[in-house]
Specification:
Blueprint lengths: L20 H6 L3 H6 L1 H15 L7 H5 L2 H7 L4 E4 L2 E2 L6 E2 L10 H6 L1 H13 L7 H4 L7 H5 L7 H33 L8 E2 L3 H10 L1 H10 L1 H22 L7 E6 L9 H21 L3 E6 L7 H4 L8 E4 L4 H8 L4 E6 L1 H6 L2 H14 L7 E5 L9 H15 L1
Parallel strand pairs: 1-2, 4-5, 5-6, 6-7, 7-8, 8-9
Antiparallel strand pairs: 1-3
Helix pairs in contact: 3-10, 5-10, 11-12, 11-13, 13-14, 18-19
GO molecular function, one term: uroporphyrinogen decarboxylase activity
Protein name: Uroporphyrinogen-III decarboxylase
InterPro entries: Methanogen_methyltrans (IPR052024), UROD/MetE-like_sf (IPR038071), Uroporphyrinogen_deCOase (IPR000257)
Length: 399
């Protein structure tokens, strides 16, 4: 929190975030990590005790949800043992889940669009829920007449499947809550409280698909801006409802479409940044801490993205040069990350030690409010010795 508030703490904090690296550490398959929640929690406790970070990972919510994916018949990813081999991470399926002529349907009635079209496309358990969407607009006796869709066998089947999925979800939350309670009792707060998605990324990734969204920038620019504003409002409403249940104020925002190579600076400033900035400000208004993970290289965006209130955010960078990020953003936001994935996966422990020292000398010792971490968490294939070297070097040079 000192880093967030732009105060220099007595030592450089370290964070621990991992996807399937726990499987490598524990010598189990990725599939077992996804389906054996007890084993995953056991490994998380063991890893956290050994590495002794200042922020830990709610691992069941990151990768321990294989049974829940099965229960809802989820269709937007392939996962270990379900579309990819047992030792491969999940793979997102970039497809067009909302057609170009459905923008207005989404804008007019987002909830109806979700139940009537979107959810049945992305998860089989929602097939049959289309009748729920027709209830909007009903009043007086029409309300009771609109119970008729619930007699439809397809909707009843869907409700039964969703009830089973709901039980699976509650078990997952209980597992994660128990783990985070144990870690919290040991002095390790969660490095992620809630999750939000930037409005542009949300629509481009999970609704229109990459190719269709890039075409829409030219064919439907005004419609895109309307949808982005609506999605921002929906995201903030969800976060406000979730706030009482969050174990940490840190709101993780994976950023997919901001990198320098994905769109021009002019497009970034028109389509991407305004709604994202409003999302950040809305999260701050909820007394939460936005923590975007700027994936790939976002060096060209640094001057633009510094336009946020000082002392309110953490900017986590994957491949952006952290020294340059400190030069541009150091008086505005705390920084997280710094360890390049190539060093972690292909280097030696000595290379890792040198990389940490470089960050200490050129960021931390120059007033940078840096929370040391790897890029997008510890890369799955990282040698265990390299991870140990990173945390040891942090204590040696800035502890």
């Amino acid at each position: 929190m000192d880093c967030v508030n732009l105060k220099q703490p007595d030592r450089m904090p370290t964070a621990l975030f991992m996807m399937f690296w726990a499987a490598k550490y524990g010598n189990i398959s990725f599939r077992e990590q996804m389906y054996n929640q007890e084993k995953l929690c056991e490994l998380t406790l063991q890893i956290t005790r050994e590495l002794d970070p200042d922020l830990c990972t709610p691992t069941p919510l990151i990768t321990g949800f294989g049974r829940l994916l099965d229960a809802v018949d989820y269709r937007q990813v392939e996962w270990p043992g379900h579309g990819v081999s047992d030792d491969r991470p999940f793979q997102y399926l970039d497809r067009e889940y909302m057609s170009a002529d459905e923008y207005d349907d989404f804008l007019f009635d987002p909830t109806g669009f979700y139940y009537g079209k979107y959810l049945p496309r992305v998860a089989g358990a929602f097939e049959g829920c289309e009748g729920i969407a027709s209830m909007a607009g009903a009043s007086y006796f029409d309300v009771i007449y609109n119970t008729a869709p619930f007699a439809n066998p397809a909707l009843q089947k869907s409700m039964a499947r969703l009830a089973e999925a709901g039980q699976e979800a509650m078990q997952l939350f209980a597992c994660a809550g128990k783990l985070m309670g144990q870690l919290g009792g040991m002095g390790y707060p969660s490095g992620i409280g809630g999750v939000a998605i930037g409005p542009y990324d949300n629509i481009a990734d999970y609704f229109r698909g990459a190719t269709a969204m890039m075409k829409d920038l030219y064919r439907r620019p005004d419609k895109i801006l309307q949808v982005l504003d609506k999605m921002k409002e929906l995201s903030l409403r969800r976060l406000a409802a979730q706030k009482p249940m969050l174990s940490s104020p840190l709101i993780f925002i994976p950023v997919h479409w901001a990198p320098d190579a994905f769109m021009s600076q002019k497009q970034f400033e028109k389509f991407w940044w305004p709604s994202f900035r409003e999302l950040l400000l809305g999260i701050i208004d909820l007394d939460l801490i936005p923590m975007p993970l700027w994936e790939a290289d976002c060096t060209k965006r640094l001057e633009t993205i510094r336009d946020v209130p000082a002392g309110k955010c953490i900017y986590w960078f994957e491949r952006t040069d952290m020294v340059r990020a400190h030069e541009v953003l150091g008086d505005v936001v705390a920084l997280r990350g710094g360890m390049h994935p190539s060093v972690m996966t292909m280097g030696t422990p000595e290379d890792v030690d040198t990389a940490v020292k470089h960050l200490v000398d050129n960021v931390w010792n120059k007033g940078g409010k840096l929370i040391l971490d790897t890029a997008f968490g510890i890369p799955d294939e990282t040698p265990v010795a390299n991870v140990r070297a990173m945390y040891a070097a942090a204590r040696k040079y800035a502890g």
